[in-house]
Amino acid sequence: MNKAVQAALKLTENKFNELNAVSIANQKKVLDAFAKNKVSLRHFNGTSGYGLDDVGRDTLCEVLADIFGAEQAIVSPHIASGTHALTLALFGVLRPGDTVLSVTGEPYDTLNDVIRKQNIGSLADFGIKFEWIPLVNGLVDFDAVKKYISKHKVKMIYIQRSRGYAWRLALSIEQIGEVCQFVRKFTPDSVIMCDNCYGEFVETLEPTQVGCDMCAGSFIKNIGGGIAPTGGYIVGRADLIDLVAGRLTSPSIGSEVGSYTDGYRLFYQGIFNAPHVVNQALKTCMLFSAALSELGYEVLPKLDDHLGDIVCSVKLGSADNLVKFCQAIQSVSPVDGYVAPIPWAQPGYNDEIIMAAGCFVQGSSIELSCDGPIREPYIAYLQGGLTLEHGICALEKVLETIG
User: Fold this and answer.
1) SS3 string of the chain?
2) Which among 390, 220, 382, 373 has a CA at the least distance from the CA of 310?
3) pTM of the predicted model as reported, rounded to 2 decimal places
4) Residues 47/259, Cβ–Cβ less than 8 Å
5) Can you tell me the distance from the alpha carbon of 395 to that of 332, in angstroms, rounded to the nearest whole number?
6) Cβ neighbours around 336 below 10 Å, total
7) Sign of CA dihedral 113, 115, 121, 127
8) Full pLDDT tens readout for the chain, 403 residues
9) CB 396 within 8 A of CB 9
10) Which residues contact 276 (CB under 8 A, 6 or more apart)?
11) Which of 134, 298, 359, 370 lies deepest, with the highest CB count within 10 Å?
């Protein structure tokens, strides 16, 4: 094993012990939800047509709601991505004339068109205003938030937990709870929504357990455990989830219909697997952080930082280094390891993007992957890793390439 990797493993021993404790607590939470809802083989079967009385679908939703300490959930294979889940949540709850305030700055790039692009069915097309307050040194600007909500009627407070393509740490559950408590004092009727992508099972609580009215994410990220083949979720207050269900299907039928002939075993098994897989992804994140920090690269998170998502950000200083970094990750991927990714103009992004993702499930961000926009300061965003062993192999390749 590479000496730098050995040294990084030594540096991360205490952090790994902390992560193990979180993983065990989350595994117990999942097992309790499975037991409470009497999950059995019959829940794995699919249905056809309308999917009326689909016990597998309905129980899956109840399991997720219990894990999140929430009243209700939608889990659906028909949700195509995290962006789709967030869009459903926004359009399900918001109405013409409403205002949304993001307290964590501008949302992730793929929501740009959802929010503001003209004549495509965006929020702007429906007269829904979306404002944001920039973070200050990676933290919510409470003074600016108070100033805004004291002057404007705000239907929804929007929180993005993960860093997106920003140079900041993800918000911790404690910070999300503080935001919820703060805004409730000034705008108690506002719906608080959290983009929970990359954050599930990173800590022992979820946003809906610290004050958020609902949150949403993708099943091919953390919560699917590297097994779920597709899908997404929205979870939270029952009245809000009913509105979102009306957007997913139609207002007249909501969650009463929706079949999936392939069955639900992979979703249940993915949730069961997720606490361990997230643990592996976090260990990979911290291993890269420790090794690359020792080599002089700027990284987030650092070893003593609190973790809010599975992402490791690395400032690489040049487009060439960013491309080489991603190509190194791709080269040790189990799928398409023989190809070399190059930057391209992917729909939904403002800049050319390079993405390394040799995944069993296409685009799965809980599997080891890496991406970044081709813009200064040329940051690579590494996420996932089903096993720490894969992360070690990838780190060795990266060190050979740019170390």
Assistant:
1) CCHHHHHHHHHCHHHHHHHHHHHHHHHHHHHHHHHHCCCCHHHHCCCCCCCCCCHHHHHHHHHHHHHCCCCEEEEECCCCCHHHHHHHHHHHHCCCCCEEEECCCCCCHHHHHHHHCCCCCCCHHHCCEEEECCCECCECCHHHHHHHHHHCCCCEEEEECCCCCCCCCCCCHHHHHHHHHHHHHHCCCCEEEEECCCCCCCCCCCHHHCCCCEEEEECCCHHHCCCCCCCEEEEECHHHHHHHHHHHCCCCCHHHCCCCCCCCHHHHHHHHHHHHHHHHHHHHHHHHHHHHHHCCCCEECCCCCCCCCCCEEEECCCHHHHHHHHHHHHHCCCCCCCCCCCCECCCCCCCCEEEECCCCCCCCCCCCEEEEECCCCCEEEEECCCCHHHHHHHHHHHHHHHC
2) 382
3) 0.96
4) yes
5) 10
6) 14
7) negative
8) 789 999 999 999 999 999 999 999 999 999 999 999 999 999 999 999 999 999 999 999 999 999 999 999 999 999 999 999 999 999 999 999 999 999 999 998 889 999 999 999 999 999 999 999 999 999 999 999 999 999 999 999 999 999 988 999 999 999 999 999 999 999 999 999 999 999 999 999 999 999 999 999 999 999 999 999 999 999 999 999 999 999 999 999 999 999 999 999 999 999 999 999 999 999 999 999 999 999 999 999 999 999 999 999 999 999 999 999 999 999 999 999 999 999 988 776 778 999 999 999 999 999 999 999 999 999 999 999 999 999 999 999 999 998 7
9) no
10) 23, 27, 225
11) 370
Other CB atoms within 10 A of residue 148 CB: 19
215, 207 in Cβ contact below 8 A? Answer: yes
Tokens of 259: 């079949």
Residue 279 CA to residue 302 CA, distance in Å, equals 17
Residues in the chain, how many? 403
Tokens of 315: 């400032």
